[in-house]
């Protein structure tokens, strides 16, 4: 399983509403994510709207493509798009900045055994 971390910028004035929406994600969206290979998926928000996402998947591109083929994802992305800054016409799930992993404790520990 591969680990992925990404950044997005939520409009600070919409952050409270964004959090509310994520407190009750549509059940069909949750199931589509699971069926598409998104696991251990979390979002973290800073007060200024910086959003950090973490997800595990065998292949993030394949998981994104699987989600893109679902009707529920299209509806969700259409509704969520207005919350973000800097997407340049892309949907939130295609417009995030993927970060490079530079350290993982268990990987390092595995080298010493």
From TrEMBL:
Gene3D superfamilies tied to this protein: 3.30.70.100
Position of the signal peptide: none
Pfam families named among the record's database cross-references: rhaM (PF05336)
SUPFAM superfamilies: Dimeric alpha+beta barrel (SSF54909)
Protein name: L-rhamnose mutarotase
Organism expressing this protein natively: Kineosporia mesophila
